[in-house]
Write a structure and sequence with these properties.
The complex is a heterodimer. In chain A, a hairpin with a 2-residue loop joins strand 1 and strand 2. By secondary structure, chain A is mostly helical. In chain A, helix 6 packs across helix 8. In chain B, helix 3 packs parallel to helix 4 and helix 5 crosses helix 6. By secondary structure, chain B is α/β, with parallel strands linked by helices. Chain B contains 13 helices and 14 strands. Helix content of chain B is 44%, strand content 18%. Chain B is globular, with a radius of gyration of 25 Å. The chains are: A mainly alpha, B alpha/beta. At the A-B interface, helix 1, strand 2, helix 9 and helix 10 of A face helix 2, helix 7, helix 8 and helix 9 of B.
Chain lengths: 291, 401
């Protein structure tokens, strides 16, 4: 077993989770110019729903994943429709700030229902691993990466090839004009929030099965997904996916080369450096103001 | 017609009298505060405070401290109190803020006249409370201690002195033969001390420490440290980490086909994370015993009943760890208060605490402080975990000194 090969394997699995979280951020930003700080809260709810589906309802991995995604789709879209729809098209900044409050509400609600202790998800996947190119690839990591790949592929198709994707872009570009042209900004954004909710549910579920249903761990992942999104580009779903993989790779590279104490410093320094040089990220589109 | 000065004379006299009364009152109040909040009435309740992280990311531990202390206080009050006085518990949330912890400590010591405080989960909040605890002479128990102070007492585990126990545990789980082991530990002051101690003690015990892997609290991917441990091919792995981190590490070791014994130094306090683990190679440890919810021991039964009285349905998951240590610590404070007498002050309570040792049977056979050592634990307990739920006692190791 090679430490370097294992670092690459770990980077891909962790990067897949960052990519899922990041794509939800990017989708919402693309559709509504809202930077949602409550994605971590939705991710936590998704993880707990997955835990309940496995431990209480005795569902398998895929069925529990689908239940979590459906419930979070409804919860996220419903939250937007009830709480934010009236103001979002006019006040993206205000909505972004309001999502901080929503994150607190979600965390408190989860604490009331499930408590705040980390919970171990019953094993629904094999604990064995396969030796590939000097690395051990656990079944849970294969499931994590495969799930992320499917979800990200579907997201990319929706964003790039469907009328919904074009409507999202139109609403984000100019919500007022889009309304004049007959598009419903609220309906489009509600759909975007629903899809983003599903991605966070999947992210929370695969994180839980790799580690535990852990409020602190989920917060850490949601926080560390930010540099990944900045790296990829705030409004690019594909960029968020690549940014997640690159960022996880940088983290493990730093850990191997300098030690774990340097990971956070170097990660956020990289984000700041990139913001200074290319504020729109690797794949984001720079804002152009015509005078 | 009276002159203006004559008309103002009664007002001036009244104001002077009011100032005099206020000065006397304030003088008495500050004397009381500086003495650690003793109450002037012998029948008035003693005041104990909670100054903990009741909100924020570590609120799970703050809530557990509050419920453990509350369970003890309710139990004592139901039995008529201590020295004929009941205990009133005032709970304040420091919200994981060092400055708020200092503010709360001040309020508890002055306005509420608390003679004992239980709380801070994190060493930063404990450090923030320490100068206030010293100024007002209020013994304060913290889950993690980052500062030495005559008024700060340990409430939670302290791994810094666990080196000898780790060496002994490694030998025990390997059947006493000389062996090679790996250590994975949190990048925290106590664990860093532990790692230094283990590295120094291992060669003297005929053991070889193959690799030490430092873990960050914010770390979510453990591929690199696990790969380093697997590559070293140890006979035993010793882990000191959070519950979720331990589970991730164990999964990584299992996937790599490593089936050697894994000693989990923080196993008892992280019982919730161990439920559902199917590996038979896990050996949890703790500075206090694992409490079985079905225990018939008198002290354990009293603890379980006390938890029920505060609305906690005790299970292996929610009674082990911090609720138990908070209850045990409160019991020691209660014993010291009893010895201190009816008009006990904070400084008097501290003096008694420094010579108090209690025995709570299955909860903890020996727990006590001395003037030079405010870490109360006297032994490490080693278990073998079977099917994630059955804890079989293996042995215990006395603390050195």
């Amino acid at each position: 077993m090679s430490v370097a090969a294992q670092a690459v394997e770990g980077s891909i699995a962790t990067g897949a989770i960052y990519s899922l979280v990041g794509s939800g951020f990017a989708l919402l930003f693309r559709a509504s110019k809202v930077l949602s700080f409550c994605q971590g809260g939705f991710m936590l709810v998704g993880a707990f729903v997955f835990y309940d589906a496995v431990s209480a309802w005795k569902l398998g991995f895929l069925a529990a994943l689908c239940v979590s995604a459906v419930i979070l789709t409804v919860l996220s879209a419903g939250t937007y429709f009830v709480v934010f729809a009236r103001v979002a098209s006019r006040a993206a900044f205000g909505t972004s700030v309001a999502t901080i409050g929503l994150a607190g509400v979600l965390q408190a609600a989860v604490a009331v229902k499930f408590g705040t202790s980390p919970l171990q998800v019953p094993s629904v996947l094999s604990s064995r691993g396969y030796h590939v190119l000097g690395a051990v690839v656990p079944v849970v990591d294969i499931a994590t990466v495969a799930t992320a790949a499917v979800v990200l592929a579907v997201l990319l198709v929706v964003v790039r090839l469907t009328p919904l994707g074009r409507r999202m872009e139109a609403v984000a570009d100019n919500a007022g004009l889009a309304e004049h042209l007959g598009l419903s900004a609220a309906r489009t954004s509600t759909l975007a929030w629903g899809i983003a909710g599903a991605t966070t549910a999947v992210a929370g579920s695969v994180f839980a099965i790799r580690s535990a249903v852990d409020p602190v761990g989920v917060s850490n992942v949601a926080l560390l997904a930010f540099p990944a999104i900045i790296l990829g580009g705030l409004d690019s779903v594909g960029g968020a996916a690549i940014g997640g993989l690159v960022f996880a790779g940088v983290q493990n590279l730093v850990e191997v080369a300098l030690g774990p104490g340097w990971v956070t410093i170097v990660s956020f320094a990289l984000m700041l450096a990139l913001l200074a040089v290319r504020p729109s990220g690797m794949f984001g589109r720079p804002d152009v103001v015509r005078l | 017609m009276p002159s203006r000065s004559v008309r103002l004379l009664p007002i001036g006299l009244a104001a002077a009298a009011a100032l005099l009364v206020a000065a006397c009152g304030s003088s008495g109040g500050s004397a009381s505060s500086s003495a650690g909040g003793s109450s002037s009435s012998s029948r008035a309740p003693y005041v104990w405070g909670i100054n903990a992280e009741l909100s924020g990311p570590v609120s799970v531990y703050g809530d557990q401290i509050a419920s453990g202390v509350q369970a003890y206080v309710d139990q004592v009050n139901a039995a008529g109190g201590i020295n004929g006085r009941r205990i009133q518990l005032v709970k304040l949330d420091n919200a994981a803020s060092e400055s708020q912890a200092a503010t709360n400590e001040t309020q508890l010591a002055t306005a509420d006249k608390a003679i004992a405080v239980f709380g801070s989960v994190l060493d930063a909040e404990c450090t923030g409370s320490a100068p206030v605890a010293e100024r007002y002479q209020v013994p304060t128990a913290c889950l993690t201690i980052g500062i030495h102070s005559p008024y700060i007492y340990g409430l939670g585990a302290d791994n810094s002195g666990g080196g000898p126990a780790v060496i002994a545990a490694v030998k025990k789980v390997a059947g006493g033969r000389p062996l090679r082991f790996a250590l994975m530990y949190n990048n925290l002051p106590a664990d860093n001390d532990l790692a230094k101690s283990v590295a120094a003690l291992a060669p003297r015990a005929g053991e070889k420490l193959l690799t030490s892997q430092k873990l960050e609290l914010t770390q979510t991917d453990f591929s690199v440290p696990v790969a380093s441990v697997v590559a070293a091919r140890p006979d035993v792995v010793v882990v000191s980490a959070t519950g979720p981190a331990f589970v991730s590490i164990l999964k990584g070791l299992q996937a790599s086909g490593v089936a050697v014994p894994v000693v989990y130094l923080d196993g008892v306090v992280n019982t919730p994370s161990l439920v559902g683990i199917t590996a038979s190679s896990v050996y949890p440890m703790g500075e206090y015993p694992y409490v079985d919810p079905a225990s018939t021991d008198a002290h354990a039964s009293a603890f379980l009943a006390a938890l029920r009285s505060v609305g906690v349905n005790p299970t292996a998951v929610n009674l082990n760890g911090t609720p138990a240590t908070a209850y045990i610590t409160a019991s020691a404070f209660g014993a010291a208060l009893r010895a201190c007498g009816p008009s006990c002050t904070g400084s008097g309570l501290a003096a008694e605490l420094n010579k108090t040792t209690i025995s709570l049977g299955a909860l903890d056979p020996a727990f006590g402080y001395t003037a030079s050592n405010h870490v109360p634990w006297r032994a490490w307990f080693l278990y073998h975990l079977v099917h994630g739920t059955t804890w079989t006692p293996v042995t215990s190791f006395p603390m050195p000194g």
